[in-house]
Amino acid sequence: MPRYAHITGWGKYIPPGILTNHDLAKMVNTSDEWIRERTGIAERHIATAKETTAFMAIHAARDAVEVADMDPAKIDLIIVATATPEHCFPATACLVQDAIGATRAGGFDLSAGCSGFGYALATATGMIRSGMHNAVLVIGSETLSQLLDWDDRGTCILFGDGAGAVLLQGKDEPGGVLATSLGSDGSGGDLLIVPAGGSKHPASVETVTNKMHYVRMNGREVYRFATRVVASAARQVVQQAGWTFDKIDLFIPHQANVRIIDSAAKALKLPPEKVFVNLERYGNTSAASIPIALCEAIDANKVNPGDHLVMVGFGAGLTWAACAVQWSAPKRRALAAPRAFTRLRYGWFGLRSLLSKLFRHLDALLSRIIDFIERRPPAV
What we know:
Blueprint: E1 4-13, E2 18-20, H1 21-25, H2 32-39, E3 43-45, H3 53-68, E4 77-81, H4 92-100, E5 106-110, H5 116-130, E6 135-143, H6 153-156, E7 161-171, E8 176-184, E9 192-193, H7 205-209, E10 216-217, H8 219-241, E11 250-253, H9 258-267, H10 279-282, H11 289-299, E12 308-315, E13 319-326, H12 340-375
Parallel strand pairs: 4-5, 4-6, 11-12
Antiparallel strand pairs: 1-7, 2-3, 6-7, 8-13, 9-10, 12-13
C-alpha cells in the first residue's frame, strides 16, 4: 500500500527588527518609490547577532512540532534548507536536532538557494513514500543579511531574514504532497553567487578586500530566468498531480519580486485571490520564503482541508522546484505562546545537551589520565 506524506505541523520565526525602504534610502542611493516599483518590497526583517540561522530554525521547528502535537523523539529526520548555514560543518540540522530533543533523528543541510525548501520537501516526501522514514521535519532558514554588501543597492534592497518549518508524516490516506518537480541549469551558476568561502576561493585577505563573500547577482538575467521557469514548473507539477488549474485553490510562489509573481499568475490565468503574496513585508527570505508564506496563509484562513496548493521556488544554481499539495490538516493555529509543559520540556533538552557535553569532556579527561598513568615508568 502506498504511503502519503502529509503536512501535519507548521511554524515560523520572524526577527522583530525591521529595515524599511526609507531606512535603506539613508544608506544607499535609492528610494521607497524606486524599490516598490521594481520589486514590490516595502520592508524586510533583519536578524540580530543572536538570531542566527540555527536559532531561527529551532524556533520555527518547535512551533511545527507543537502544532502537530508530536513527541520530538518520534522524528526520523531533519532537513534544513539554507544558503546561510550556521557553520560549514556541523550541519545546522544537527543543532536543531539537539535543541528540540529529536533523539532518534538524523540531520543534514541542503543547499539549493531559494529553491531549497522545495528540494527539501521533495526529498522528505520521497523518503516517506519509500518507507525509509515516517516523520520528517523540513526547515527553511536564512540570515542573508550577513551576506549582503550594504553599498550595493542591486542586492541589499531585496533580501531579509527568517525561518519556516513543516512537519511531514506518513499516512495511508491519499493526500499531502502528491507531486514534485525539480530542475537545474548550472550554466547560469554565476548569475547569482557568493564567489568566496568555498574550495575555489577560500577566505583570504584578497577575498575579503574584494567583497567576494557577498551576494553577487545579475538581476536582469535572473529576472528573465524566473519569468520563464515559474509558470512552466507549475504546469509540470499540476500535470503530474493529475489536476487542472481551475482546481487550484492557492498558489504560493517564492517571494522574490512582485513582477515575477504577477507574470506567473497571468501566464497561469490565476486570479489575484488565488495567489498568496507577503513580499511587501519580508522581502526575499530565500529558502524560508515559501514556508513563511504558507504559515501566514494558514493564519489568514486561506488554506482549508481538501484545498489544492501549488508552491514554486527558484533561485541560485540556477534551480527551480515545484510541489503540489492536497491539504489535509484540520484547521488549527500555532500557539501564541508556549505552554508551561513545552517550556519545561525544551529547558530539559537544553540541560541534557549541556550534561552530554560535560560527560564527554570528563570522559576525555579520564582517558588522558589513564593514558598518562599507563605510560609512566614503574616506581623503583
